Amino acid sequence: MIIEVTDLRREFVVRRRAGRLRRTRDVVAAVDGVTFGIAPGECVGYIGANGAGKSTTIKMLTGILVPTSGTVRVCGLEPVRERTTLARRIGVVFGQRSQLWWDLPLRDSFRLLGAIHRLPVSMWQPRLDECVQLLEMEPFLDTPVRQLSLGQRMRGEVTAALLHSPELLVLDEPTIGLDLLSKERLRAFLVRERAERGTTVLLTTHDLPDIERLCDRILVVDHGRVAFDGDLPGLVARVGAERVLVVDLAEPGPPLTDVPGTTLRAVEADGLRQHLAFRKEDTTAAAVVAAVSARVELRDLAVHEPAIEDVVRRLYLE
Amino acid sequence: MQAYHALVRSRVAAQASYRASFGIELGTQVLLVLIEFVEVYVVFHQVDSLGGFDFAEVAVMYGLSAVGFGMADMVVGHVDRLPFYVRTGTFDAFLLRPLSALGQLVTSDFSLRRLGRIGSGVVVLVIALAAADIDWTPARALLVLVTPVAGGIIFGAVFVATCTIGFHVVEGMEFANALTYGGNYLSSFPFTIFGTFIRRFFTFVVPAAFVAYLPTLALLGRSDPAGLPTWLSWSALPVSLLAAAAAWWIWRLGLRHYVGAGS
Question: Do A64 and B93 touch (CB under 8 A)?
């Protein structure tokens, strides 16, 4: 096991105003008895709503926070006590905060990280060249980090985390705020990284396609506890995650109750806009669109993917 | 060490890329020292001695303090950005690298513009030393060289110890600045002009008296009118090392609070 977490718990003290001068002191458990293990080479999606305890867990795994109780072992090490040793063996990307030097050209950040990890140039340069080529970073390598777009910066962040060839890569919302193309490029890169080097990956995300493309296992946390541990089809089968096709018709039509594989969820504006829910296993978006346009004249359409939050909420409604 | 060297070099390179603004900041630092010094001069325009010391003698104290503080400010002064780093998550990035967090905080900048303060401090110091009535011996010559270093270490320790407030509360740097900048201001005056509490606090708690006042007594061969033993006047360096050790301990305490191991 590259990550071993047993009965992990982390409390925070929240001080709240209760009246003019009085303050109450509440103890809140952000992580409340989490147990799981991750084997080398796995790619695990760690998902849950905001405030479910994802970031707190990641901070405890990477040595930024001490657990209130329970044990954490990462690469066989105790994260906080052996922080610097662990830092040489893992790579971490926080989507919301940068680990690059904002006032230096991107290239210089990599040079500095090489020095920080005490790697000879011969060790990190080939790795950098590989990432630069795969992530197409050549055009902006000499641009100061503060002038990079979010997508460019994120490619830099991922490269920075991989420069020392870590055994474990931890990604906290790596695709947040990226456009579709950037997301897909990053996913393809991570898929290749795993295939080539067998790097273990733990990632948190709000993006279902991230999980579909990358993860062979999902851990759903809710209220500081593990609510589900398994693969994506297992999760979808359990909660029945649906995609929704929203169609705008050229003129008001009758409710589309007879499209195969779909359920009519809602009808707006006298049938001008209709919501059809369907499951991935039953039919495809293309088939639904074809069936609808055979019945009525279509003006516009949109497909809504199930949001992680919905999946998690359904898990709890059971 | 190599890693820190690379970090500091990158900071220097970043400053060198903005030549015009660097020049202006350097000039500002020189100007600041001159204005502060004019303040001392104005006082002596009204009186012949301050707390039992003449203009040249107080100028020696001012010079020693300015050089010591300037060095500390250049090398570690930017640690007062800790609350900002904590708030923006940069400090977490420090913890994800295989280096000491304090080492990274200290090397997160290297304010070359402070060379202006150090340079003009040295000029004031040299002129004042020539003007003051000092009976030069090898030991006193050595003391003049060691004192600014000790002063730098003392102020550096105060900077580090007070910045850890950023680990405990969000807004607290006003208090930290009162100790660092206040300590600097006090240290450039003869301590005989202060009340007992201030004198004791800035000798035994925040050892600002060792930055300039006590070493100047040793240079002049005088004893402390308030009765501190003479050997203390020669102890700036060991005291500065004690201060550094205390600052390290306070830093550890703050870091443990941040990761949640303490309290």
Answer: no
